[in-house]
Design goal:
alpha+beta; two-stranded antiparallel ribbon; 14 strands; 18% helix; globular
């Protein structure tokens, strides 16, 4: 097959794969090396722990914009208790963790999905370390696109309970600081959303 037709076929396969995946853009593995210079992560904490008694699952959406270059923090996700148990027991599946941050590259092309137009450039930052104890979330992850991502935030149990009863609320239920790459940490609040 001539080279030009091979390239067209590959592009067509990529579009078909997006359609078969429910028009979700592919997520770039946050821990896969891309062939560039490797960053030194030897001093970063590792390990996972939680003392959760209730359900904190859902999407935590920033109440103010958090950005590093063209990358914007879309949400923090926290799973259900069985997700934490599985992860801490060593069960790891695909690009999923009980605590993870998802960023959107706003310079990437747009595609149409059933939810409207979205950017194709997205990355999930999976944890190298997390602790969800005494209502405090501590997270450290590494991404080739963003560098080291650190989040330290306090969960407001009463505000979360109210947001869950109301199926979402505008007020912040999680407040703390986030550091991305070499940028200084910035204050950030998150509202809770159940998701679609």
């Amino acid at each position: 097959m001539p080279m030009m037709f091979r390239q067209i076929a590959l592009v067509g396969c990529g579009v078909a794969a997006l359609m078969l995946a429910g028009c979700e853009p592919p997520l770039q593995p946050a821990d896969a090396p891309k062939g560039g210079a490797s960053m030194d992560t030897s001093r970063l904490p590792e390990g996972f722990s939680n003392d959760l008694q209730g359900d904190v699952s859902g999407y935590y959406m920033p109440t103010t914009e958090v950005r590093q270059g063209s990358w914007r923090l879309d949400h923090v996700f926290m799973g259900q208790s069985q997700d934490f148990t599985a992860w801490e027991g060593g069960i790891r599946e695909g690009q999923f963790a009980p605590v993870m941050l998802e960023f959107v590259d706003e310079s990437s092309p747009m595609i149409q999905t059933e939810l409207g137009e979205i950017h194709t450039g997205r990355v999930r930052v999976l944890p190298r370390f997390y602790s969800v104890e005494n209502g405090m979330l501590r997270f450290v992850g590494v991404s080739d696109e963003l560098g080291v991502v650190q989040l330290d935030a306090q969960l407001n149990d009463d505000a979360l309970a109210t947001a869950r009863r109301n199926l979402g609320a505008e007020g912040a239920v999680l407040n703390g600081t986030i550091g991305i790459g070499d940028a200084p940490p910035q204050a950030v609040g998150f509202r809770w959303w159940a998701g679609d």
